[in-house]
Amino acid sequence: MSGDKKVPIRSCVSCRVHSEKKSLIRIVRSPDGQVRMDPTGKAPGRGAYLCGAKECIAQAIKKNKLGRALRCEVPESLKTELIRLTSEEGAAMATGNAQ
């Protein structure tokens, strides 16, 4: 036995590209119905993943792919937060401040 851990793979609900779980943005619908981002990736509830590309997030919001994956309505505040997150990353890339 090699002792290597398996790396969890998930797919983006928008572009369907498979990636490591930790590189994706997890959105979770908790058992009480609250929909929010899950930075830890361990919150209980139904999860959906986005790759973080600006186009994927825009398409997931426009075509309600995120809502269908979570089987609920996605609040406007979360949609705004996702759009803001991608625009901040884009601005960091343009100025060269990305990590």
Commentary on this structure:
The protein is α+β, with helices and mostly antiparallel strands and 99 residues long. Helix content is 35%, strand content 19%. The strands form 2 sheets. Strands 4-3-5 form a 3-stranded antiparallel beta sheet. A two-stranded antiparallel sheet has the order 1-2. The radius of gyration is 14 Å and the shape is globular. 20% of the residues are buried.
CATH topology: Hypothetical Cytosolic Protein, Chain: A
Largest sheet, order of strands side by side? 4-3-5
Count of the domains: 1
CATH class, please? Alpha Beta
* Series of secondary-structure elements, N-terminal to C-terminal: EEEEEHHH
The end-to-end distance, rounded to whole angstroms, is 36 Å
**CATH homologous superfamily placement:** YlxR-like
**Helicity level:** 25-40%
Structural class: alpha+beta
Gyration radius, rounded: 14 Å
Mind describing the biggest β-sheet? 3 strands, antiparallel
Helix tally equals 3
Named at the architecture level, the CATH assignment is 2-Layer Sandwich
Strand fraction: 15-25%
- Shape label: globular
Mean pLDDT: 90
Low-confidence stretches: none
Number of strands: 5
